[in-house]
Amino acid sequence: MSVNQTTADDDVAAEIKADAKAAKPDRTDMVGKALGLLVLLGDEPLGASAAEISRRADLPFSTTYRLLGSLTRDGFVDYEPDGRRYHLGLRIFQLGQRVSNHHGFAGTAMPVLRRVTEQTGEATILSVRDGHHHLTVNKVDGPQMFRVTSDPGHLGSLSTTAVGKALVAFAEDSEREKLLAELPLEGLTEKSITDRDAFRAEIGKVRAEGYAVMDEENEAGMRAVAVPLLNSQGHAFASLATAVPVFRLSLEGLVAHVPLLQEAAAELAARLPQR
Fold first, then answer.
1. What's the rounded Cα separation, in Å, for the pair 108 and 94?
2. pTM of the predicted model, to two decimals?
3. Angle in degrees, 0-180, between the axes of helices 173-182 and 162-169, rounded to the nearest 10
4. pLDDT band at 20; cut points 50, 70, 90
5. Nearest to residue 213, comparing CAs of 159, 162, 156, 165?
6. What is the distance between the alpha carbons of residues 264 and 119, in angstroms, rounded to a whole number?
7. What is the mean pLDDT of the chain?
8. What is the pLDDT of residue 181?
9. Which helix (H) or strand (E) covers residue 245, if one does?
10. Distance between CA atoms of 124 and 231, rounded to whole angstroms?
């Protein structure tokens, strides 16, 4: 064993010993705590140390260290000895692929998204709602050099994105009202809608027109248009968008893609499981 490894092990042992004296970990919801650590690691593309994860999770270091050890043994987490950092493991990817296949996001949706991108020359994005966020479940990049960064697995704002607005506007009536009253209105750019009355008016406009736009509200230099995927009750269970950099297409030119998106959304709504 190297001197550096011995020192690292001693440091970990000292932290665990000090932590045990400070507080006795709560063992009543270890599964929830472990899942919480996985969510935190998902936000760390470069990985994180046990100490960093412990602070972010607001858990005792000893609890975090033991949970990470269990998750590593089962393949849900990878450990990088050189940097003493943890990353999501391939087991998570495997489960994610199974979820994607179950919902038809991979085999069923991809040909439709590719066809839209072939006709627009721009990125096509499929999203669903996850609480107060939208979750990107599939994306096809356009042939252009400038790349849209909302990769599958990305959680984004409902209030500042076209896909998010479409999901809110065509949610079930009671759920839409709840979102309009409670949804955090994030000021991500100077153009973000942060006034609740103005956001309610925006959602009303989306419902009236049947599509939503984002014009640099989520990210400077980007705009998008989205339409809902509607179930048999007329409620959105997903949304489909085309996203472009502002220098490549005007808002009017982007809205011209709405009929194409609506046709694709109707096809996907007929073929995908409606959750």
1. 18
2. 0.69
3. 130
4. very low
5. 162
6. 12
7. 85
8. 96
9. strand 236-245
10. 21
